[in-house]
Structure formats: structure tokens, C-alpha cells
Structure prediction request, 329 residues.
Amino acid sequence: MSTIIPAAANYEFDLELLQLAQMAPEFLRQQVETYPAYSIPFITVVESPELWATYEKLIYSCLRIGDHKSAHQCLERLISRFGASNERVMGLRGLYREAVAEDDTTFKTIYAEYARILTDDPTNMPVMKRRIVLLQSLGMQSEAIEALVELLQVSPTDAEAWTELSALYLGQAMYSQASYCLEEVLLVYPNAWNVHARLGEIHFISSLSPGDANETSIERALTEAIQRYCRSIELCDGYLRGYYGLKISTDRFLETCYQDNKTIARVAKYNGSSTRLALSVVKKLNQKAREELRKMVDQKAVKDGKGRGYEESEIISAKALLDDGSEAK
Prediction:
């Protein structure tokens, strides 16, 4: 019997999620309920990796809209085909049990089962990830961080795990650890413009932290934020989030890092080196960000059902930022 279920493709939009879940009952009626362990040409029903990926996606989508019956049927067919001991099936079974759980006692029972599974097989990645999600659901953030660190010791190139660990560290105001995790993500995906932008956000947030109130640390954080936002825009032209971040970071840089109309900022030391941002450069970047955001707002390019354009909330936020800037003047 096969022990591998093809990874399901990611789906992004709520409309696609709804359409996928709505097709579940009809899809299940059209498919046979069981498949033999080995296919016999011209006799058995032909199966494909895409079929099992569809079953997996249906589980996620049906659980999201509360169709537990269809999700359970999909899960049962995966168990029938791949076996209950398949790692991916075990993770999906845990996901289903978490979705239908009604109280903390049930969650704790599920957690105990995860612990038992991992005692027998410490490298079971799907169950490790479900345990981490469950810990977060129970509000056990410190334990979730420890579990993620353990997971990354087993799989150090898991970009998803590094991203999640970064978010947990950020929630604890551990900015250097959060940025380090995203740096690890960039080792795997160096051209991920959204990760560069997220790094910019972390450095910008750290510049607002009371713990980083001295001038040097604020300037260092803002300098890094500006560079990260610029890189995200370089990699993805028309990236609204990148331009938004560039606008607010250069605004704050101009407000906090220049005095007496000096044309050169104070030296900002970071990563063992030094850099200087000329006043003229920062002003040009600020102006460029303002112009690009204005174009996006004027075009009102709200995202359509196919993912083109921007989220309406992004357009609203950009307009509010530009309006605030106009009033300040």
C-alpha cells in the first residue's frame, strides 16, 4: 500500500474555498468509496495524485464552512486508501478531531494522543505541526515556541515553520528572534517579496518599542526597515504593502533621525557595518511611495475573484495614510 499522499495545492481566495466545499457532496457521489491496494490495468478504477489532492483540499474547505459530514467522508476514503498509520492521514485525522472538538477537555485528549504518536515517532511532521497549532489554540505560546524549535531541528529548511516561529516571537516582542526566523526563510526563498516586507514591518515595529528608545537603535531599525521595503518593491513592482511600509518608515525616519536640517543622518551601525542615508534619498523614497500609493488609490484596483488587484482594506488604509499626510502638511 502506498504511504504517500500528494501535497494538496494551496488555495487563496474565499470564493474558491466556498465553491470547493459546495462541490463536495456531488464529488463524493461520483467517486468510488474504496480503492484496492494495487491497481490492475483495465479492471480497477484509475486513480491519480490529483484525485487524492482534491480529497485533502475538500477536508480543509469543508471544515472551514462547517460541513463536518463531507469532511469525515473524505477522511474515511483517505484512510481506506492509504491506511490510518500514514503520517499525512494522521495529521488530517487530528485536524478533523480538532475542528469538531467542543471543549478544552477534548483538546487536551487530542494533545495527549499527539504526544503518544510523537513518542513512537518523533519525526512525524504532520502530527508535530498539528500539536503546535493545538498548543497555540490552548494559549500555550511558550510551549508552542519550544515545539517549533524542536520541529526545526528535525527540518531546518521548513520555511512555513520558520514563519510561524517568527510570528510567535513577534507576539512576545522578541524582535531580534522574529527577524532572525524570517532571515532563515529568505535562505530558502530569497526572492519572496512578502517576506522582505514582513521583515520591514518587524524592524519598523521595533523602532516603536519602548525598549529601543535610544536614537541609535531607532535609526538602525528604521534604516533596516527602509531597505527591506525597498527590496520588496524591487522584487514585486506595484506591491502596495511595500509602498505603504516605505511611506510610514521614511515618515518616521524623517521625523526622528534628522535634526537641524542636516543632509546626512547619523551613522547607523548594524550587522557589523555602517551605513548613511542621505536626507535627499530618504525624501525621494518618501515622495516615490506617496506617488505610487496615490496611483493605486485613484485606480481603485480592488481585488477581483481571480486575485487581481488589491484588497479593499489595503486601498482604504492607503487612502487614510495619504489623507493623514495631507492634513499634516
User: Anything to note?
Assistant: Residues 1-13, 260-274 have pLDDT under 50 and may be disordered. The two ends are 70 Å apart (CA to CA).
